[in-house]
Structures are given as structure tokens and as C-alpha cells.
């Protein structure tokens, strides 16, 4: 088979049709409802105890840390109260061995150490004064302590604004003794061991932070409906009606919120949508990836959508073609046909032979490659992936398959976004656009549905949002008119600012308890 035909055959396996999208949306809404009604459903639908989104007038100096994927970030955020903020931050890559450490202590002590370093570097006056004061006082007084929002982007069963136990690790983390523990208490213990003037005031999922940050900074007075991450992992948090979260009554928690906004932010944990695989697409490459992952059968939606996995899907698809003798991908004509490694131009030491060896950023590079003869793709293959002298045809095949994987991810992302928009009924008012033929309806502040997004895929994958929008238009309950009313905005550094905002809300709650 010619190379182009072989590549087209594999790319076609990733097609996700209009019918698939619509079936996906229906099932997504069903699983969202199920999660609101009972504990332990596939989609966790976790109540966050956050009942309002900010309006931009909030003020103060807060700290935030973010553990969620590849990096650990520490920041301090000055909220100016006029929808703007200043942020100082430091970032370190999380050492691989700590992601799979033997004990929680190893990871959390590392995190506390980074907070100490940050304070010494960026708030040294504050730090030194407090250390000095500590010599004469026992502990710190309220005013001397930074309130910190802890963005911890894994599924957590929250039981209060700064309390929550880890349900399961995702995204390659695996530390057995953390599961079932309160992650805020684990961090506070290590902070206290270093005598830092920091109180873990709020536990925040990155999606909730994104939602809060977008709401603080977004133009106009419309509150944001959904905060979504399409990065190393994927997930969304949205504003739900308290009365629809029926499991909260069973958990005995609803009365505390009566008389408030009538809303609560729900962390969907949609990465685990359809773990039972009733509607998700399933190519041989998806199956193999899952089987050899450290959490088979879990996070099945995430494994088809997010950055941690797309590179690995592509790697497996490419190797299947390389092994197919009838398709000349990365093939060495002058080779010894009896020795498999010498029939291919992929060097023996290439990361392409290793699990997780192909980085998802490569999908963005090749899908967006407009250079003559796909020079950029060929150079990247050669320099980063040790493929010798890849041809333009090789690069074309790689680009075709990579684009198919990226497009499928974007269309699946649209399923999640659409399900939230439809199930919350946000498009039904003020005019039912989906059933209206009024092509000239004006999109304005009153009928916009605002969505905040963050993560490497939405930010860097070429046309990710366009693909999402294309799929949204194919859903009858949204249609071209509804799609226009959906405003998607990047909430850069959302988790930092959002965590600060939640720490502020938590502080206000504490103060009103005391006064
Ligand atoms: C986690 C979520 C998180 C998402 C995005 C998923 O693996 O389960 O809690 O929001 O990644 O970071």
C-alpha cells in the first residue's frame, strides 16, 4: 500500500462524526445528572462549597500554589479590585520520582520547600520579619499570615472550603498513601514544619480557579458559566442550581447554603466521563494506551482528549504503520530486511520506541506546519526524535494522523462544553435561538454564555477552538445561532488568580464566623 493511503486509513480511524458528537452529548448529560444525584457515579460531580463567582471588585494580597500536572507553581497575587491583578510567580518541574514517591511526605515536603524559597525570594521582608517575630512570639497572629489557595488538580472529595480527601491520582501521579487523606492537612503539616507564615485557606481544583479567574477578569457583567482545562489533563467546573444537586441533601450539607445565591460550583471531573465506554471512540491505539497506563479503565475521556495522552496515541499509531511492511513509513530502502530495526530510519535510541516518548507538543508543531515540504516537521523528527532524513511523504503522513487525533480531541471537548451549556439551560433565555430562524439576532452582553478555558491544548494546538465551534454548530440544541452566543476566552494563569479569589472568599467566611 502506498504511504499516503496507509496514513489516510489510520487517520480515518479517528473520525468522530456529527452523529457521534450528538450521541456523546446525550450520554454526557445523562452521566452529569446521575453524578448530581448519587455519590460514586462515573462522573463525580463534586460540590465545591463555592456558591458565588466574583465580580471584579475583590481586593487583597494572597498566595496560591498549583499542583496539577507537569509543574508546581507558587505565586502571590495582588487583587486590585478593578478586574485587574498583579502576579508574581515561580515554577518548577515536578521531579518524576516524586510523582510516584513511596510516601505523601516526600511530595508535600518538596512543595512546602518551594513555598519557603518563594517567600525568601519575593517576600523576603515579610518572611524575615515573621521569622524574627517568631523568636519572641509563639506562632503568628492572624494578620501576619498569608492566606493560601491550594490548587490541587486531582479528584478530591471536598468536605469544606479547605478540606478534602483524594479520591484517586490521575495524569501519571501514583502515591498510594495519599488516597483517602486530606491534602490540605498534608500540605499544612509540611508548611508548619518549616515555620512558614502561611495558612492553607482554600482547596481549589484548577477548573474552579479558571472559572473564578475568568469571572473576575471577563468583560461585562455576565458571570462565567464554565471553567474548563484542556491541558495535561481535562476537566470542567460550572455553576449549578443548588436544588439540582440532590445528593447534597443526602450528604446533609444543603441547609448551610440556603438563603445564599441558590447556586454552587460543581467540579464535574469529566475526565472520567464514560469509563464504561458506552459511547466513547475506541481505536486499537486507545485500547493499547489504556491497557499499559497506570490506571486502566479510568479517565477514559481524558485519555482521548488531553495533552498527557495525545502524543502517546500518535506514537502508537505511527509504530503500527512502521511495523506494517506494506506501508513505507520511515523506511530504509538500503536495509537488511531480516533485522527489523535496520529496516526503519528511526534510530534504535529514539524516544519513539518508548512509552510516552512522543510529546503532545509535537502534534501542535506538525498540525500547524506550513513550511515548504513540511521542513519543520522533518527537522523536529530528525532532531528531537532521532529519525534520519525523513522524507516529505513521511512528514505528510505524520501530519495527517496527528491532525486527525487533534481534531477528534477538539470534537470530544465540544461534547463536554455542549452538555454543560444545554443541561444548564443557558441558551434558552432570552430567546430560544436553537429553534429560531432569526439569522440577524444580535449577540450582546445579555445573551452571551461565557466560558473560561486554559491549558496547553486550547492555547497551542492550531485551530482547537475552531474545531470545537464546528462541532457545536452540529448539535441541534445549539446550532449556528447558539454557537455565536458562546464566548470562549482564555483565562491565563487562571488557577493562580482563581485560587487567590477562593482564599479571599474563605477568609471572608471565617471573619463572618468570628464577628
Ligand atoms: C484531574 C482534574 C483536573 C484536570 C485538569 C484531571 O486529571 O482529575 O481534577 O482538573 O486533570 O488539570
Question: Could you walk me through the main structural features you see in this protein, from its secondary elements to its overall organization?
Answer:
- The chain has 515 residues and is α/β, with parallel strands linked by helices.
- Among the domains are: 1-35 and 276-405, Hexokinase, domain 1; 54-222 and 493-509, Nucleotidyltransferase, domain 5 (2-Layer Sandwich).
- Helices cover 43% and strands 16% of the residues.
- It has helices at 3-12, 18-37, 96-99, 104-122, 124-136, 183-193, 206-217, 246-250, 284-291, 302-305, 307-323, 340-343, 361-367, 375-385, 392-423, 456-460, 464-473, 479-485, 494-514, and strands spanning 46-47, 59-67, 71-80, 85-93, 146-152, 156-160, 163-166, 198-204, 224-230, 234-241, 263-267, 449-454, 486-490.
- The strands form three sheets. A six-stranded mixed beta sheet has the order 1-11-10-9-12-13, with helices on both faces. The protein has a five-stranded mixed beta sheet with strand order 4-3-2-5-8. Strands 6-7 form a two-stranded antiparallel sheet.
- Helix 9 (284-291) packs across helix 11 (307-323).
- It is globular, with a radius of gyration of 24 Å.
- The relative contact order is 0.17.
- The structure holds beta-D-glucopyranose.
- Beta-D-glucopyranose is lined by residues 68-69, 153-155, 170-171, 205-207, 229, 231, 233-235, 269, 271, 302.
- Beta-D-glucopyranose binds at residues 68-69, 153-155, 170-171, 205-207, 229, 231, 233-235, 269, 271, 302.
Amino acid at each position: 500500500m502506498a504511504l499516503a493511503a496507509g496514513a489516510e486509513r489510520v487517520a480515518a480511524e479517528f473520525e468522530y462524526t456529527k452523529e457521534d458528537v450528538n450521541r456523546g452529548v446525550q450520554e454526557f448529560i445523562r452521566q452529569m445528572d446521575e453524578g448530581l444525584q448519587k455519590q460514586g457515579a462515573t462522573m463525580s460531580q463534586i460540590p465545591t462549597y463555592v456558591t458565588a463567582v466574583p465580580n471584579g471588585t475583590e481586593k487583597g494580597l494572597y498566595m496560591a500554589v498549583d499542583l496539577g500536572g507537569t509543574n508546581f507553581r507558587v505565586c502571590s497575587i495582588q487583587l486590585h479590585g478593578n478586574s485587574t491583578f498583579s502576579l508574581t510567580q515561580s515554577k518548577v518541574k515536578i521531579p518524576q520520582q516524586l510523582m510516584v514517591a513511596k510516601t505523601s511526605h516526600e511530595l508535600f515536603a518538596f512543595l512546602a520547600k518551594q513555598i519557603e524559597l518563594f517567600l525568601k525570594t519575593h517576600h523576603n521582608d515579610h518572611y524575615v520579619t515573621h521569622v524574627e517575630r517568631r523568636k519572641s512570639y509563639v506562632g503568628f497572629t492572624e494578620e501576619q499570615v498569608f492566606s493560601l489557595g491550594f490548587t490541587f488538580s486531582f479528584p478530591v472529595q471536598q468536605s469544606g472550603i479547605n478540606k478534602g480527601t483524594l479520591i484517586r491520582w490521575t495524569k501519571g501521579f501514583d502515591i498510594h498513601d495519599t488516597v483517602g487523606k486530606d491534602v490540605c492537612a498534608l500540605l499544612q503539616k509540611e508548611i508548619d514544619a518549616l515555620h512558614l507564615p502561611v495558612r492553607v485557606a482554600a482547596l481549589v481544583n484548577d477548573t474552579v480557579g479558571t472559572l473564578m479567574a475568568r469571572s473576575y477578569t471577563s468583560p461585562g457583567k455576565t458571570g462565567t458559566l464554565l471553567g474548563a482545562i484542556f491541558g495535561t489533563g481535562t476537566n470542567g467546573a460550572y455553576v449549578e442550581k443548588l436544588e439540582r444537586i440532590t445528593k447534597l441533601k443526602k450528604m446533609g450539607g444543603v441547609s448551610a447554603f440556603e438563603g445564599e445565591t441558590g447556586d454552587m460550583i460543581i467540579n464535574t471531573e469529566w475526565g472520567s466521563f464514560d469509563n464504561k465506554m458506552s459511547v466513547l471512540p475506541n481505536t486499537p491505539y486507545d485500547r493499547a494506551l489504556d491497557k499499559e497506563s497506570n490506571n486502566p479503565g479510568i479517565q477514559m475521556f481524558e485519555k482521548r482528549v488531553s495533552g498527557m495522552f495525545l502524543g502517546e496515541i500518535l506514537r502508537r499509531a505511527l509504530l503500527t504503520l512502521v511495523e506494517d511492511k506494506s506501508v513505507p513509513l520511515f523506511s530504509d530502502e538500503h536495509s537488511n530486511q531480516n533485522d527489523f530495526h535496520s529496516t526503519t530510519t528511526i534510530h534504535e535510541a529514539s524516544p519513539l520506541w518508548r512509552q510516552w516518548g512522543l510529546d503532545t507538543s509535537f502534534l501542535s508543531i506538525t498540525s500547524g506546519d506550513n513550511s515548504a515540504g513540511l521542513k519543520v516537521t522533518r527537522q523536529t523528527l530528525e532532531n528531537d526524535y532521532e529519525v534520519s532524513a525523513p522524507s516529505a511523504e513521511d512528514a505528510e503522513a505524520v501530519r495527517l494522523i496527528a491532525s486527525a487525533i487533534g481534531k477528534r480531541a477538539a470534537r470530544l471537548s465540544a461534547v463536554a462544553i455542549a452538555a454543560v451549556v444545554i443541561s444548564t439551560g443557558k441558551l434558552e433565555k432570552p430567546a430560544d435561538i436553537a429553534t429560531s430562524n432569526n439569522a440577524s439576532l444580535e449577540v450582546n452582553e445579555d445573551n452571551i454564555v461565557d466560558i473560561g478555558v486554559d491549558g496547553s491544548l486550547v492555547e497551542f494546538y492550531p485551530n482547537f477552538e475552531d474545531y470545537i465551534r464546528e462541532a457545536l454548530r452540529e448539535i441541534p440544541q445549539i446550532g449556528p445561532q447558539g454557537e455565536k452566543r458562546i464566548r470562549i476566552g482564555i483565562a491565563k494563569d487562571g488557577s493562580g488568580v482563581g485560587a487567590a479569589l477562593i482564599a479571599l472568599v474563605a477568609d471572608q467566611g471565617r471573619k463572618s464566623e468570628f464577628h
